[in-house]
Write a sequence for this structure.
């Protein structure tokens, strides 16, 4: 059971304050830093670096991507949340890294209200994967767990896939044993090696989707409520009767601080919309990761708080 510090509430996106240096109408007048609270090479990091050159062109300034990993995103997101709300220290973070640390540790001093999203960068539904041909369906795998030891791998004990499996166990009394690994790559490797019977991972373009295309493993179900457009033949757990699971559409977004002046936030959102609509950026992000349409500040903020409320419920808050 996850320990929670407080209920995460929703706030309006449009909070205005005058802070930082320079005239907001002249923003940006300095170089910008985008903090990524996970290691280099992760889906969040790679996709942020794909979008950054376009943002530099749109904003006519240099942007440095700075990895500050640790504490399931807590290190980088703490640094970001304590920075001046002037538009010069941004963050690219997953919803999970934004909301799970304060549910896990009382000492974490940020929550979903500490982020003012300007747009979604990427998304990846949580998917159940098994060795090819070993199970005919997700139902067979989950049913077999009732009479034998079934081990499911997840990319970290506090990851979104782990939260989904916890919800599956709690809501549907599925008798699986969860084993955490470090990231999607190591989790997939454990499946190929036969160390686990199945895995729950995000369907990212860096690891999971290429593995599914390569073969040897197959997707049995997704944990989102609607079929994933890039996995149209893969049923949802919800359609199989495993409903009321935690929020399982992993996504990551660019954000500034809540007190950032509206004029700066609007400038950033406009640049994001241009870049996320660019065909070259879309192609580099890849099908299934790049949102088919731009997801702006308001909708991203709504999704963030929806995820926060869902995870808080699983945590027993």
């Amino acid at each position: 059971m996850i320990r929670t510090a407080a209920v995460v509430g929703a706030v309006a996106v449009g909070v205005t304050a005058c802070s930082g240096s320079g005239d907001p109408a002249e923003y940006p007048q300095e170089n910008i830093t985008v903090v990524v609270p996970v290691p280099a090479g992760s889906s969040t990091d790679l996709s942020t670096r794909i979008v950054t050159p376009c943002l530099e062109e749109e904003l006519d300034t240099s942007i440095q991507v700075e990895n500050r990993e640790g504490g399931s995103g807590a290190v980088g997101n703490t640094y970001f949340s304590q920075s001046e709300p002037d538009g010069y220290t941004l963050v690219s973070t997953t919803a999970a890294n934004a909301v799970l640390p304060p549910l896990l540790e009382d000492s974490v001093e940020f929550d979903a209200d500490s982020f003012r999203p300007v747009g979604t960068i990427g998304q990846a539904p949580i998917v159940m994967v098994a060795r090819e041909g070993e199970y005919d369906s997700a139902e067979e795998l989950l049913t077999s767990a009732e009479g034998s030891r079934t081990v499911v791998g997840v990319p970290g004990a506090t990851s979104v896939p782990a939260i989904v499996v916890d919800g599956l166990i709690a809501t549907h009394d599925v008798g699986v044993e969860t084993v955490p690994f470090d990231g999607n790559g190591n989790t997939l490797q454990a499946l190929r090696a036969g160390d686990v019977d199945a895995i729950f991972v995000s369907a990212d373009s860096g690891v999971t989707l290429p593995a599914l295309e390569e073969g040897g493993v197959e997707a049995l179900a997704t944990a989102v409520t609607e079929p994933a457009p890039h996995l149209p033949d893969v049923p949802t757990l919800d359609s199989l009767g495993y409903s009321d699971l935690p929020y399982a559409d992993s996504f990551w977004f660019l954000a500034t601080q809540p007190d950032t002046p509206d004029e700066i936030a609007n400038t950033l959102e406009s640049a994001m919309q241009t870049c996320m609509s660019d065909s070259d950026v879309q192609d580099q992000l890849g099908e299934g990761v790049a949102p088919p349409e731009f997801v702006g500040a308001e909708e991203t903020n709504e999704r963030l708080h929806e995820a926060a409320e869902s995870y808080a419920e699983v945590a027993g808050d």
Observations:
- The radius of gyration is 19 Å.
- The longest strand covers residues 116-131.
